[in-house]
């Protein structure tokens, strides 16, 4: 055996050929010849579990005919220095070779009239203190049988990553989805069929202590929406000079469906590197983000960084408490947003308000999600969305492009959100 094979799993199926030795009418059975299991004909690896990986091997094993004198075939399966889950190992005969072809295993009738499978696993034993097991296999006749040995193994892992390249107009991007397979299981699998649990299967050589990166799929012309989001309670103040202004974060939003140029499978969590085409035909790096699990028909958000061209200042211009009855109170609040868009094109600003946080800040400790109602002084320019839940309204404000004349002053857009938190106690 080659030197590098000594470091990997030493897994051998040994067929013990029993011979009959007659002496003074006593029959003695013994292991006199060890036949090494033939090489794998096929290996399949399924990587859809983060902790354990399912491996299935296919081999062709010669069997002797079982009889009352010779007994059944005893097949020994041993391993060392690997991370196989002992309880998960299975041995399944699936076909018998006839000439150059395989046919399904059929039932036969024994001399006692019992109907049984031609090849069948009778028993499995675990020698104490060893990384091995022994299958007892019945065979109605001498044959070569195709078997599948499957097991779960650890330290054969996968991770996912993305490379997104947007066009100059930031309306489409090309998304490449990669899988990285790391094999530190102790086993050298050679050429194997690999399936990530979704998408198409691919064939790769999976060697011991090796990592390989594979392109799972390339999505062309994926429509994107560039968003600008203001979230006072989550993003914090912009800087010490603008204590009432908060950061405005930029994202690309992708829809994981057919209309969004995706929708073939759930997009797995992984690192995403984001680029944009520049004027010279190259690619400029925009940023890096961790993409979350995105089921089909859900949205993936890729963080691009902070916007330096949009400034939003948040002011509380009314904060008044009303006693309702007993220990119940209402809290009336008006928030004014002063928005400046220094960009030379129009855009939309999403303002996320967390009313539970506002209630704790201006009323005190509250229980559960707050109830609220809209006030009549809310600006009509605001469009409301409740995707985040009733207590996290999203306010969308359309912003006009700034003047191309550099001497012109950017006009602030002022809008107000008027609401009352009700039944606080």
Question: What's the Cα radius of gyration?
Answer: 34 Å
Number of strands: 33
Major beta sheet, specifics? Answer: 7 strands, mixed
Strand order of the largest sheet: 9-8-14-6-5-17-18
Q: Structural class, please? A: mainly beta
**Model regions low in confidence, pLDDT < 50 over at least 5 residues:** 1-36
Quaternary? single chain
Helical content stands at: under 10%
Distance between the termini: 77 Å
β-strand amount: over 45%
In the residues, how many domains can be counted?
3
Shape: elongated
Give the averaged pLDDT, no decimals: 88
Number of helices: 2
Task: Report on the architecture of this protein.
It is a single chain. With 425 residues, this protein is mostly beta strands. It has 3 domains: 148 residues, no CATH class; 151 residues, no CATH class; 115 residues, Immunoglobulin-like, CATH 2.60.40. 3% of the residues lie in helices and 57% in strands. The strands form 7 sheets. Strands 9-8-14-6-5-17-18 form a 7-stranded mixed beta sheet, with no helix packed on it.
Note the main attributes of this structure:
2 helices, six-stranded mixed sheet, 425 residues, mainly beta, seven-stranded mixed sheet, 33 strands, Immunoglobulin-like, disordered N terminus
Précis, in short:
The chain is an all-beta fold. The chain has three domains: 3-150, no CATH class; 156-306, no CATH class; 310-424, Immunoglobulin-like, CATH 2.60.40. It contains two helices and 33 strands.
């Amino acid at each position: 055996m080659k030197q590098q094979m000594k470091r990997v799993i030493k897994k051998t199926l040994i067929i013990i050929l029993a011979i009959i030795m007659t002496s003074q009418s006593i029959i003695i059975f013994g292991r006199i010849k060890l036949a090494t299991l033939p090489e794998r004909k096929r290996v399949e690896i399924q990587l859809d579990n983060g902790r354990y990986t399912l491996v299935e091997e296919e081999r062709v094993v010669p069997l002797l005919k079982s009889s009352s004198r010779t007994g059944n075939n005893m097949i020994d399966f041993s391993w060392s220095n690997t991370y196989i889950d002992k309880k998960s190992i299975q041995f399944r005969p699936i076909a018998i070779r006839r000439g150059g072809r395989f046919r399904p295993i059929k039932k036969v009738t024994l001399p006692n009239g019992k109907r049984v499978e031609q090849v069948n696993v009778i028993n499995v034993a675990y020698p104490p203190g060893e990384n091995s097991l022994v299958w007892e296999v019945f065979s109605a006749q001498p044959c070569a049988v195709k078997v599948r040995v499957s097991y779960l193994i650890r330290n054969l892992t996968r991770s996912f990553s993305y490379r997104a390249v947007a066009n100059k107009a930031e309306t489409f991007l090309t998304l490449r989805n990669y899988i990285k397979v790391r094999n530190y299981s102790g086993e050298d699998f050679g050429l194997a069929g690999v399936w990530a649990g979704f998408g198409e299967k691919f064939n790769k050589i999976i060697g011991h202590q090796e990592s390989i990166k594979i392109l799972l799929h390339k999505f062309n012309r994926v429509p994107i929406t560039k968003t600008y989001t203001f979230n006072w309670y989550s993003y914090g103040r912009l800087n010490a000079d603008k204590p009432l202004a908060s950061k405005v974060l930029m994202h690309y939003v992708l829809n994981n469906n057919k209309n969004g140029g995706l929708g073939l499978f759930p997009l797995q969590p992984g690192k995403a590197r984001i680029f944009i085409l520049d004027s010279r035909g190259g690619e400029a790096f925009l940023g890096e983000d961790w993409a979350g699990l995105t089921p089909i028909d859900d949205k993936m958000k890729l963080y691009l960084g902070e916007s330096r061209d949009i400034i939003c200042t948040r002011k509380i211009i009314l904060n008044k408490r009303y006693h309702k009855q007993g220990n119940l109170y209402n809290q009336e609040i008006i928030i004014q947003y002063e928005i400046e868009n220094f960009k030379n094109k129009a855009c939309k600003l999403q303002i996320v308000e967390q009313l539970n946080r506002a209630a704790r800040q201006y009323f005190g400790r509250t229980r559960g999600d707050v109830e609220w109602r809209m006030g009549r002084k809310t600006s009509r320019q605001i469009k409301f969305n409740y995707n985040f839940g009733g207590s996290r309204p999203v306010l969308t404000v359309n912003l006009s492009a700034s003047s191309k004349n550099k001497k012109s002053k950017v006009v602030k857009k002022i809008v107000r959100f008027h609401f009352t938190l009700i039944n606080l106690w």
